[in-house]
Amino acid sequence: MIKRFFIQFFLGKRLYAALVAICLTFLVSYWFTALFTLGVILLYTLGFFFLLDTVFLFRQGNGLVANRLLPERFSNSDANQVLISLENKYRFAVKVTLIDEVPAQFQMRDFEIFDQLEAKEKKEVFYTLTPLERGEYIFGDLHVFVLSRIGLVKRRFSFQKGQMVKVYPSFIQMQQFDFLATNIRRFDYGFKKIRRIGHTMEFEQIKNYIPGDDIRSINWKATAKSADLMVNQFQDEKSQPIYSIIDMGRVMQMPFNGLSLLDYAINSCLAFSNVAIKKGDKAGVITFSHRMQKSMQASSRKSHLLGILEMLYGLDTDFLDTDFGLLYNWLKRKVSQRSMLLIFTNFEHQTALQRQLPYLKAIARQHLLVVVMFENTLLESLTEQVPDKISEVYKQTVAEKFMYDKRLMAKELNRHGIQTILTKPSELSINTINKYLELKARGLI
């Protein structure tokens, strides 16, 4: 009991301030002796209120109850809310200071939340955490320091040691892009306009012509019979196998805004697979580096998305060199049906692309290949600065050369019939989904 008392017992700032004031009173009383009596009175008064405050806070065993409410899982690279419920069981108002031992991955050493509770009041407070890595995150103790209105003594309550939450690929981002799969006639998706080119040849129905329909689809026989313009309506072909292939080599280790290119690719893969499945296509995932790692067969079942989520959550890599020849041989043996292959990778210079180009061309002869590469936003910001020194001019020149090489690599891939996405990491998901919708509208898949 005594040990528990001393573990929970802390001194308030107001007590230290009062002691400093009394010490100054005694110091000044060396020259003004009348202040000595005042100092003694203040000291006894402080001691009385100190004991009174201690009794108020410690006479009730469970004066305050707190509970940390965590979601079932966190979404990587998104703001996740942590809710804390508080209940004041004292018969007087208290001030509280919350100190939550957040997981070590966040490196937050100054976490504090200040609030106030009236007598018998219940309240909920929340804060947000934005993880930048997948994996298990362990929360420590939730400490609540309580002060009465006297404010000389603090009592510490501790709750819920060792809570764990798993950080999954960004399912919040996946839900944000859900609407892209709902309406096949949308021209403006809110993020970036899509130019829908042509249509597929899978017939759906004959309907009345309305402004905006393709005049090439007019059915003249049906028009003659009904005396109204009638058009053939086509729908996108479905059940096409689509694979997201994630390069887990060292080129994907580069970080932007605290998140590696690999995690950007994983988040985009989840959002893209969700849209593909809702559009009726089969979505699958393949990962590789110096060896073939995990893979999941393409499927259009709704429950398949949960399997993709679990697979992406467990991805781990040593960021070694990538073997595209190994990927080509694996695809030749395992993926016999013509499919759309979306490869998330990165080439920083021409020689790196030239080494892998023969394998990419061989894959493109059998499948619809889309290569996703990343723009270096740090180089872009460097070129936008106004140089003050000759050395800064040199740096800008080198940065512009690297950016120009990236555009040349994209054109080189296009020249060999390989579709290319050159995008900023932050815009990866929307650009990937837009490319998929464009290719689907053109009837290429």
From TrEMBL:
Signal peptide limits: none
Stated name of the protein: DUF58 domain-containing protein
Family annotation (InterPro entries): DUF58 (IPR002881), vWFA_dom_sf (IPR036465)
Pfam families for the chain: DUF58
TM ranges: 15-32, 38-58
Superkingdom in the source lineage: Bacteria
Limits of the DUF58 domain: 206-372
Keywords: Membrane, Transmembrane, Transmembrane helix
Keyword Membrane: yes
